[in-house]
User: Fold these one by one.
Assistant:
Number 1:
Amino acid sequence: MNEPEAVEDRLLAHVDSILDGASYRKRDREDLAEELYGHLWERWQDAISSGLDEETAADDAIRSFGAPDRLGREVTLAYHSRLYASTIGVLVPTVTAPKDKPRGYWIIYLVLFTSMYATGMAQGLVLMTWTPVRAGIGLPGAVMAWVASSLVLSAYTRRQHWALDFARLEAALLLLWAGFLLLTDAQIRPVFVGSAGGMGLAVITMSQPLRLRPLSSWRDLRLRALSSWMNERPVPRRLLVGLAAMLILGPALPLAALGVADPTQIGPADLHVSLLVACARNDSGDVASVDVTASFVFDRTDMWPNGLEPDLTGRGPTDEIALTIEGAQPAGVPMAALRMTRVPSGRDATNGSPLTIDDAGEPDGGALWDLPGSMRFQAGHSYEVTWNYAVDTPASGLRDLSRVIFGYDHLERFYLQATAGCGQAAIGQTVPRLYVAGP
Amino acid sequence: MSEEHESGPQLSRGEFALLILGLLGRREMYGYEIVAELRRTTDGAIDLPEGTVYPALRRLERDGLIGGHWVEVASTAPRRRYYRLTTDGERALADGRADWLRFKTAADSVLDA
């Protein structure tokens, strides 16, 4: 036969299991616990008086009192709204109940924290560089992923071992996502950085002893997935579905955002490029100098085309322009050399302000320039860039230019190219890539 | 794992609260006593899980309809928290009773027809 203290401990444990599953004002705990315990104690005493032994009387008192999950929910409802009670009010006690920590918890704590931090930073960096609509889609996913990670971290440090399995699943999904992105887009370095934390998480969590048990019922899944195995309290199905959705949408939304066409960003139809080539000839009729004028007008401009990063750091990708001049000479005549007589100049033809142009080298045989002010181009303004060339070789016999090719690259998203010969004008057309091979 | 203990008619939270106010309208009571009195008065027709009375009491207290105070009973027994109606609680009980009678009359007129 048990000592009375042992039975009273059972009654106290029942009270704890009710209050551990409830959300209420913490300063009320003592009063609530005393009141609930007093009821159980009196019921227990009455049952003993009616002839039951202490254990059976305790069983009777506990059974009559009601199931902890229902009573916990009722207590929560006494303090909060129905919506709160069915969501956060269930979740918070789930992750905050038992305080004793599992063996080696600090390793998991460290790794989970590092992983969350790295992932959060990575997602933050990605969002910083994303266009508004993409960021708007990806941000909720980032928040959900972070919340899910936080819950896992909190639950694990309180010896709720479902968190371990949850962390493994999260790590596996993170790795799959990172792998997919690395295969499809090598430019996403922040995601790669964030994934490093996930890899560490996977390695560490996989090294922990497996605590999986075979599923026997839907209730078992609810217990396993979201509640503590220590207090055997299942979590409402709606919350289970909600957290499952959070787990999936966390990585899925940022992934989906990458493929979304953002209507706040311009396309090729919003940019108009034109080219004018004027050639001066000598007395022999050969080309002596060439003046090239390229103009471009935007119908509208991008909204935060590279996220907030350029505004905050002053850096970011710029538009680029390229020019290639191909000569055409009679056979047997030495190659004429075109010499740029001055650096190309640019201006906003609408208001006359100068346009900064930076030399960016000569890849692919064509000369390339950056337009560092392109982030501030205004819709409806006409921007002009002019080049002046002289034919260096005297009496070169350069009868004509076969092609002058001007290209405009908008943030490596689309390219417009215009091609004209001496005395011709041309309108830019979309081409798959900007730079064409030079002569 | 304890089993859910419930029999008799299903009460909404509002109806349960009204019954508690009705009992406290007679005299001060503590939780265990309220449950026992409810069972006795209704001949066991209303027999809810006993613990549900405490969240209901908390809600009523939070709404200012009842007030509670602790009473020492014996050195070997836990204290009891007694509740009594406040002025607002008396008014709520009167309103609730009137509403219930109107509802009962209306329901009877349908069911007895």
Number 2:
Amino acid sequence: MEPVFKALADPVRRAILDSLFCKGGQRLNDLIEGHGMSRQAVSNHLRILEEANLVAVVWKGREKLHYLNPVPIHEIATRWIAKFQTGQLEALSNFKQSLESQEKPNHE
Amino acid sequence: MNKSTFVYVTYIKTTKEKLWEALTSPAFQSQYWYGCHFECTWAQGAEWKLYFDDGTIADTGVVSEIDKPNLLTLSWQNEFRPELKEEGYATCKITLEDVDSTVKMTVLHEMERPNSKLIGAVSQGWPAILSGLKSLLETGVKLPLEHM
């Protein structure tokens, strides 16, 4: 589980996961365009995400497509969250979102 | 890309043979698949049905590719929600690979249409099924499913 937390600790890697959550199957070039970083930087982040099993790779011919793999995050959820009421957590999370979207300042 | 695709990967400390057995035998399935089990001869071209624990049919399809214990490809159609059934068949490809002392299991679920509701519905279940399978094979204990 440690590689998962290490991979998630970086804001750029979380942004890459956000991007793959919105649109699965992106190539390295798509991700470079989306994040305005060097090829080497993005491929380095992707390697760390792959090693943590947070990103799954599917080859279509010679194209390497990247997908968000939700399984490790699900395992974190079952380890610490499952025994609490998920309905209540969802309500809390919705509440937080609606309050924060009224505020607007751009923070994580 | 006019397709709906979801990919799930998990690494399980077991052998491909044991994982294959867990995937294809009803006694194992019901322990990690929300109480559901498959009925199928697991031969190329064979039809399969997935049953809920009350005996009603959840999903059906055909075994389109089988290479024990490495590869299993199923066509997949929902049978209990009309709005999902009308989308027709999706493809579910499961591959097992030895990686160090674990088995890497990849589930690739695809449908030839964007924003597929079937893939959306199926995708909510896969992470729990894979975690349950991993827990069962590694520790012999099934995960509680009541929260799902």
